[in-house]
Here is the input.
Amino acid sequence: MSDLDRSRPPARGTFADFDFPAVDRTRLPTGLDLRVARLHRLPVVSLNLFMRASEAALSSANAGLAVATADTIEGGTRKRSGSALAEALEGIGARMSASAGWEGTSLSLSCLAVRLPEALAIVAEAVLQPGFPDDEVERVREQQLAAIRQRLMDPSSLATDSANERFFADHVPWARPIGGSADSVAKIDSAEMSAWAEANFRPERGGLVVAGDVDPGEVAAMVLDHFGDWTGAPANEARFEVAARTTERRIHVVHRPGSVQSEIRIGHLGTRRSDPDYYALSIANMVLGGMFTSRLNLNLRERNGFTYGVRSRFVLRTAPGPFRVSTSVGNDVTASAVYEIMNELEAMAEVGPTEAEVTAARDYAAGIFGLQLETAGQIATRVSQLVVYDLPDHHFDEYRDRVRAVDAEAAAAAARRHIRPHEAQIVLVGDAGVIASDLEALDLGPVDVVGGGA
Amino acid sequence: MTRLSIDFERHRLDNGLKVVLAPDPTVPIVAANLWYGVGSRNEQEGKTGFAHLFEHMMFQGSANVPKNRHFELIEGVGGTLNATTWFDRTNYFETVPSVDLELALWLESDRMGWMLPAMTQEKLDNQREVVKNEKRQRYDNQPYGDWDERVQRLVYPESHPYHHTVIGSMEDIDGATLDDVRSFFETFYVPNNAVLTLAGDIDPRRALDAVKRYFGEIEPGADIPALPGDPDVGARIGTTVRDHVVSDVPLPRVIMAFRVPPFSSDDFAVARVTGALLGTGRAARFYRRLVRERRIAKSVVTYVYPLLTGQSMMLVWATGYPDTAPAALEAAMSEEIAALRSAEEREVHRAIALTETDLVRTLERLSERADLLSMYDLYFDEPDRLNQELDRLRAVELDQIREFVEERLGEDNRAIVTYEPEADR
Here is the structure.
């Protein structure tokens, strides 16, 4: 035992890259894009059905309709009530959920693999023959209105929603909260949901992903059985040019009296998933605020003790989403935290990461990619990303090589192009009476204070 | 019916460290997981929150690992890591490519054996601020953020180790000293108070050799001291106790808590199945009746805590709509609880079918698999309970559920915390 040298970490073995599972892809005659990944670890299966029925295709007057419609899928079909639908699924140990976002509507199912034939029949019924009974529609509408109220009083959600509003011009859908407003949601009814689903629950530009202990040929036959008559493309398309609300740097305080912390969001218009800088920018962001040992976290948490944690993120969509730094800090250090964040943004934009930082981030990104291919659900999610963002089939086969090819120069160039501290919108939710004057003193730009609680 | 079985072998080093090895070569990664038999229940009066603060200190370096290096090294191989503190235990875990198993063993053994030489006042001051910000962010600045503090005060008497929360109080966190860190480490962070589980792409013989090499020379500690306070507590609270809170919450919420048999009891499975009848899935009674049919609740939640000390706790809560009267919501919940006496076999089958899928999906993740094996070994000296869990649930009979509802969910065993929005909201 005495021969063990504890003074240095053990030497690394050779990392065994493992392949992304093979994906069997079939385009059904009806236009449905079916992708099946066969896995043998445990007897489970995960299914994702993605349809491009997107909240971004709605005007602000109709905002929240895609979200509400997805939430009402579990409310029953033309053949059975919501309770009967839940009984049928859960009786065979299947969990189904549906949700809508800025890219579309997703329906997910997990169950033991032997239960897939029964579960798939129910999923098809839920999507192709949704019932939208009045009482379930009313319930979902009331729940969504209550959720809007909750978001307004939750400092973290309020900060994120306020930041999106500051980052994007009014006509950009994601300037508004995903669930819509009290006005737009209050008028949603069963007829509107039925019309939305009829027009937009369509196979084209979407896809069905199945991952698990299944036979791809058998899955294709089952899918054909249940979705054989399903055709067409979504009628409502998202059409807009993403634009920033402003490029003038401002501080925006949402006053929440009595707050014992300030929620901080700093950022601006970001970029799209298909940006050629994708890999380099991912690495630059990891160094900035995308891992525990990022500059922001080591500064704000481990050096200064200002926060429990801080992160930065480019939210990548088919069209440019937000770039933002998010954290929550004590009242007395709010201005200091903003100052430190701005310094880190400037250093990253102007100088970029060091070679050593890039190496560390690269190793992290390449390594963690493999660690996150453990479960059927994780594989299904990855394959769904190929569908949602229209990525090439070999995207994940190449991922690690592309990540490892990023060097410091490329990461610095990407940071310079995509991180623009002089355009940053600095948004805080906190007690303005306590934090506003220190923020003024930072001299980073005009300070607006709005609101007096929720 | 699937018969799932996770293979493992058990060992014990001379210094008392328990080791569970669960090989699975299907993915080239390994989860390392350490459970220490110490949690908030071990905290002395005036030291609440210390077990959790100490958990933070375990990431501040050890004799051969400078501050931040632990994170850098694990992130550098693409690994993930974290730790959590709870009532009865503290767990530390990392998942890494299997070629980096020794890195995880080196880091975990260095802090188990040689954490104290790296401790400084500066590190303690820093992490104290981090933890205070964690408390503010997750509890103090959140609507309903103080619910668990209020519930625990009602369910457990002041003398009981669960009377206070894991996060503790700001005053106690402020009062923590380096001496506290030293004595806590020497008392609880000893190999004879821990389980190490490795799950994943390992060769058990070589993995065991490596574990012995890294952990074998760590000195065992003394026996773990008895819990402070009085862990014995009656099976029932004795009455309905209440805490009505008017505050700036968006929606009314009613939280009910009950003393239930401890995790170690044979009757704990009855509590779990009963909890699942109420709260697992959308066909469960609370969702079906309160959310879907009566539309009196916006959302419902059910927890059955797996606690060891004296009596455990079952919680149900319902969040209403802006105009829901908390008293009406409470009455509706009470009706559904009483109606459980007429539960049917079909519902039990449904709840267990869903629980089975959930368990298999949990076990897909090596980190979860390792965590459960550590738990069952630390708590019961029997990691195989993981493989018996579904059978325990399947063995629960309807009259046991009826009896449980009578004995444990009645008005003589309820703590009710009600949140009501301020009038001007």
